[in-house]
Design brief:
5-stranded mixed β-sheet; single chain; alpha/beta; globular; Purple Acid Phosphatase, chain A, domain 2
Length: 230
């Protein structure tokens, strides 16, 4: 079985002029966050992508949040965008299985966020812990799921410090998102799609393909296709 996904991320849009007509190379699309800080643009962009793909799966990024303090409100807002759209899925606390491939997503709250004060720092640590716990427990459950052959993890945050390649993260975390791979006992995780860097990364590490496709200011910009084989 061979299942393809287009990867799109770090669009950082400032207007509603995003046009993806005739650029799809797969039936499905994964958006790794940082679409825009304007929720109207986020909504219009996601809805536009649903006209180009059979399924669109996305996670929020730092750009979608004014602050860690607004994460619960903004999460509800993003959930509301997907409620009435059949082929649009917000991966927050939501696992999708497509033809034997499970997509598991979380923002991650690693590296990209600078807390405003001590209280915000505590909230940020809680957000990190919640996402790590969710990813780890979900991947652990999927190990015994007979219909899940492979897992694609999607995060906005960079999963491993080495992928900063010498750049300094805005904030150091005591844990690594990739620590959750200890729960991948059946080695089902084949890809980790992520955002939050303008550096193009597509590398293999411990039999997992870590890959992104940042737009930032790139023009022209095209989808990057990954293929999950099993």
């Amino acid at each position: 079985m061979n299942l393809g996904f287009d990867i799109i991320g770090d669009l950082h849009l400032k207007s509603n002029d995003f046009d993806w007509e005739s650029k799809a190379t797969s039936l499905y699309c994964i958006v790794s966050g940082n679409i825009s800080d304007d929720m109207d643009i986020v909504k219009s962009t996601l809805l536009h992508l649903t006209t180009q793909y059979q399924g669109v799966f996305f996670i929020d990024g730092s750009t979608e949040h004014d602050s860690v303090r607004d994460r619960d409100f903004r999460t509800r807002e993003l959930n509301g965008i997907t409620t009435s759209v059949k082929n649009l899925v917000y991966l927050h606390d939501n696992v999708v299985v497509v033809d034997g491939v499970a997509l598991v997503g979380a923002n991650g709250w690693h590296g990209n966020y600078v807390p405003e004060d001590t209280t915000a720092e505590i909230e940020l640590i809680c957000a990190e812990y919640e996402d790590i716990t969710y990813l780890g427990s979900t991947i652990k459950k999927l190990q015994i799921h007979v219909d899940v052959k492979k897992i694609v993890v999607v995060s906005n945050s960079i999963p491993l410090t080495k992928f900063y390649y010498g750049d300094e993260p805005r904030r150091y975390s005591k844990t690594s998102l990739a620590d959750i791979l200890e729960d991948d006992t059946e080695h089902k995780v084949s890809h980790w799609v992520f955002g939050s860097t303008d550096r193009i990364i597509d590398v293999m590490s411990d039999d997992i393909n870590y890959v992104n496709n940042p737009r930032y200011t790139r023009n022209p910009y095209y989808a990057k296709r990954i293929e999950v084989l099993y």
